[in-house]
Specification:
Elements: H1 8-18, H2 24-30, H3 34-37, E1 39-42, E2 45-48, H4 56-68, H5 71-80, H6 94-97, H7 108-127, E3 132-136, H8 143-151, E4 161-165, H9 170-176, E5 185-190, H10 197-212, H11 218-221, E6 222-226, H12 229-234, E7 239-242, H13 259-265, H14 267-286, H15 293-307, E8 312-318, H16 325-337, E9 355-358, H17 369-374, E10 381-388, H18 397-423, H19 427-432, H20 444-450, E11 459-466, H21 469-490, H22 501-516, H23 524-534
Helix pairs in contact: 1-4, 4-15, 7-13, 8-13, 8-16, 13-14, 14-21, 15-21, 16-21
Bound molecules: 6-O-phosphono-alpha-D-glucopyranose.
Length: 535
């Protein structure tokens, strides 16, 4: 396939870039329909893309780029189950996990059987004497369920506590163990490969604690979710929930890796999560490119990364339950698209994955938003707003009024930040303002320069009616497909992650040196760090 930067549309976009001078404030003044023009809806997720630095010419150039890069044909190949993960020779079928029973999607029977078994077990656990569920996993075997359990906290039954342990740092597990009783705890060891150092270390430690604390019937208190059944059984776990190599780790929330979430929210809501994702899958599969939300967002990402040169994107979910979403999206996007060669292994001459980062609003406003407003770089921001809060209990009237007021403040903050980023503040406006806390010795024009905002900074608004299992499923699927789209334009394999291997290999070579003290052949810095550890 022709490399993206050799496609005619790439050249057209470059030309547009050269004479690029869109001012969002003016664009809204000149075109009263701008907001409406760039509003989209899919599977209950509304997205306002109008405060982004693009116009009709860029938009149609990007659509031509998608066509020439055969993005939709690549999408269809994924959905059909072709081995698009070419470096591992695997299909990429997380969409098949959310298809309903009887759908004409690959592996539908196997998927439904595994789902039934997993949901049946989840319901059993919910009805048993288990009070604490400790999920041990890392990366794709942690971030999805950990993020989703927080997001859907309002749906958790009061008698259950969910804990997520991922770090090889024993302090992670040690913080959880003292809260547990062995006979009322279920440990779930989640690892696609069942070879991951951190997970196996934590699982061994959990087993040792369980036995030392007088736990009996280990088989009833340990379960595993893995595509390596033999290794999980060799570890001593009888209840193993298997899945397939065509489910990528960072796309595995929908598989049995979602078990802790299913225990937390129950079978019916877990099915709603799948249904929400499936609704977004259908939109992605069926909507024409010019109204296809993941296509448009993925193309906008390409415009920002390759033509406007923005190297990062910030995600600001104005919902406390979504505070782990930025971490989840970091793996989704940066592990998928952080590549420097194309599918055939040819070096790329253009940029790929941006840095994705963020924090729940309003907290981020009081930390890094300064840089977003007045820093020297433009960082597109994605605001996620949820119209109706859910607290998981019925607040008494006096509290309900307070909480409703706080929710209005939350939403107003999110909308105002997007407005401020775009609007900015001119020098003359700042000059005309009083600033009671400013240093009176400072010249007025110098102060006004400190207090001016360039504005014209882009953002998107993602609006959900409420955050429930269905809308969360749709939201996550939207992100998955959007990452697919930019990866497809760039011609990279978004489904491998060779970049995590080297550090793992070097770690296993260094470990024995911590005992032996042998620094032979190491660079000076590595040797010094090793000596420091041993001192
Ligand atoms: O599920 P596991 O096999 O334990 O893998 C856990 C994680 O570790 C790896 O290093 C990869 O970077 C991730 O993609 C993966 O999700």
């Amino acid at each position: 396939m022709t490399r993206a930067d050799r496609l005619p549309a790439w050249g057209e976009l470059q030309k547009l870039r050269e004479s690029w001078s869109l001012d969002l404030r003016a664009a809204f003044q000149q075109d009263s329909a701008r907001a409406q023009r760039w509003q989209f809806e899919a599977a209950g997720v509304r997205v306002d893309l109008s405060k982004n630095l693009w116009d009709e010419a860029v938009w149609s150039g990007l659509l031509r780029l998608a066509e020439q890069a055969e993005v939709l044909a690549q999408r269809d190949a994924m959905l059909r189950g072709e081995a698009i993960n070419n470096t591992e020779g695997r299909a990429v079928l997380h969409t098949a996990l959310r298809a309903p029973a009887g759908a004409p999607t690959p592996f539908n029977d196997e998927v439904q059987q595994a789902l039934e078994r997993m949901l049946g077990f989840a319901e059993q656990v919910r009805a048993s004497g288990i009070r604490d569920v400790v999920h041990i996993g890392i990366g794709g075997s942690d971030l999805g369920p950990a993020m989703a359990v927080q997001a859907l906290q309002a749906d958790l039954p009061p008698h259950l506590r969910l804990h997520f342990v991922s770090n090889v740092d024993g302090q992670d597990l040690a913080a959880v163990l003292p809260q547990l009783q062995p006979q009322t705890t279920l440990f779930i060891v989640a690892s696609k490969t069942f070879t991951t150092q951190e997970t196996l270390a934590n699982a061994e430690a959990a087993k040792a604690w369980f036995l030392a604390a007088g736990g009996t019937e280990l088989a009833r208190h340990f379960a595993a979710t893995s595509s390596n059944r033999e290794a999980a059984q060799a570890f001593g776990i009888e209840s193993v929930f298997g899945f397939w190599d065509w489910v990528g780790g960072r796309y595995s929330l929908w598989s049995v890796i979602g078990l802790p979430l299913a225990i937390a929210i129950g079978a019916e809501r877990f099915r709603a999560l799948l249904a929400g994702a499936h609704a977004m899958d259908r939109h992605f599969a069926e909507a024409p490119a010019e109204r296809n939300l993941p296509v448009l967002m993925g193309l906008l990402d390409v415009w920002y990364r390759n033509f406007l040169g923005f190297s990062s994107r910030s995600v600001a979910p104005y919902h406390q339950g979504l505070r782990r979403l930025p971490a989840y999206l970091q793996q989704l996007e940066m592990e998928s698209n952080g590549k420097c060669v194309d599918r055939e292994g040819n070096p790329l001459t253009f940029a790929t994955s941006p840095v994705v980062w963020g924090e729940a609003g309003t907290n981020g406003q009081h930390a890094y938003f300064q840089m977003l407003h007045q820093g020297t770089e433009t960082v597109p921001v994605e605001f996620i707003l949820v119209r109706q809060p859910r607290y998981g209990f019925q607040p008494p009237p006096a509290l309900a009024a307070r909480l409703a007021d706080q929710h209005r403040k939350l939403l107003a903050n999110g909308i105002a930040q997007a407005q401020a980023l775009m609007q900015g503040k001119r020098f003359d406006e700042a000059l005309g303002e009083k600033a009671p806390t400013a240093n009176p010795q400072l010249a007025a024009d110098a102060l006004a320069r400190h207090r001016s905002f360039p504005g014209n900074r882009p953002s998107s608004l993602i609006l959900l009616e409420q955050l429930d299992a269905h809308s969360l499923g749709a939201l996550i699927a939207l992100y998955e497909h959007r990452v697919f789209v930019s990866g497809a334009v760039w011609g990279i394999n978004s489904f491998d992650q060779w970049g995590v291997e080297l550090g793992k290999a070097l770690c296993s070579q260094l470990l024995p040196r911590l005992d032996s003290g042998d620094v032979h052949g190491l660079d000076g810095s590595t040797a010094a760090a090793l000596r420091w550890v041993r001192a």
